[in-house]
Amino acid sequence: MLKFLYPHEYISSVFEMTADKIKALDIDTVVFDIDNTLVPYWIKVPDERLKAYFSSLNQAGIKTAVLSNSKEERSKVFCASVNMPYIYRAGKPGIKGFKRLMDKIGSEPKRSMIMGDQIFTDVWCGNRAGAYSVLVKQVSPKDELITAPKRPFEKIVIKMYMRYCKKHGGHYE
Ligand SMILES: [Mg+2]
């Protein structure tokens, strides 16, 4: 039930998803959500640890990009400091923004991974697009007003997902 909302993987932090792990999945592109996936919503730019992480992926030949539902300014400022392509007001869980990003960077959904902190936006978008979806624990317990009401429902889906994983092993496929 609700399998279309289940991520392929659920991790505590983006740093767990190393270049080696990504390459072993035959994935060449990682699409990141920004808010509460990489940084809390009030932090404007990536810190040194994130910068080093992005370059470790890039050096391994993995493309990195941002897909955000926020306003242009948010992605623009964040991505400028790491020279990353982005799509803003992406309309996740719709997949138009995702497709636009794929065209922009010359990637294919089936060889791409989406990492995000929200089931109903990031994971659902990735699953619909045919990408590998990774749910990341939110970096801060503080959510924006628009996100907070969705969390209780997410918790229910995550519980179901965990139960499903216990039964069927780590991944849902
Ligand atoms: Mg987010």
Q: What report would you give on this structure?
A:
The protein is of the alpha/beta class and 173 residues long. The chain has one domain (3-168): Rossmann fold, CATH 3.40.50.1000. The chain is 38% helix and 14% strand. It is built from six helices and six strands; from the N terminus they run βαβαβαβαβαβα. The chain has helices at 19-24, 48-59, 72-80, 96-105, 119-129, 151-168; strands spanning 9-11, 29-32, 63-67, 86-87, 112-116, 132-136. The protein is globular, with a radius of gyration of 15 Å. Magnesium ion binds next to loops.
Share of helix among residues? 25-40%
Task: State the domain count.
Answer: 1
CATH class: Alpha Beta
Could you list the spans in which at least 5 consecutive residues all have pLDDT below 50?
none
Bound molecules: magnesium ion
What is the fold-level CATH name, i.e. the topology? Answer: Rossmann fold
Distance between the termini: 13 Å
CATH architecture: 3-Layer(aba) Sandwich
Beta-strand content estimate: 5-15%
CATH superfamily: HAD superfamily/HAD-like
* Spatial order of the strands forming the largest sheet: 1-6-5-2-3-4
What is the helix/strand order? EHEHEHEHEHEH
Mean pLDDT across every amino acid position: 94
Class by helix and strand content?
A: alpha/beta
What is the number of strand segments?
6
* Radius of gyration using CA atoms only: 15 Å
| Form type | globular
Profile the largest sheet: 6 strands, parallel
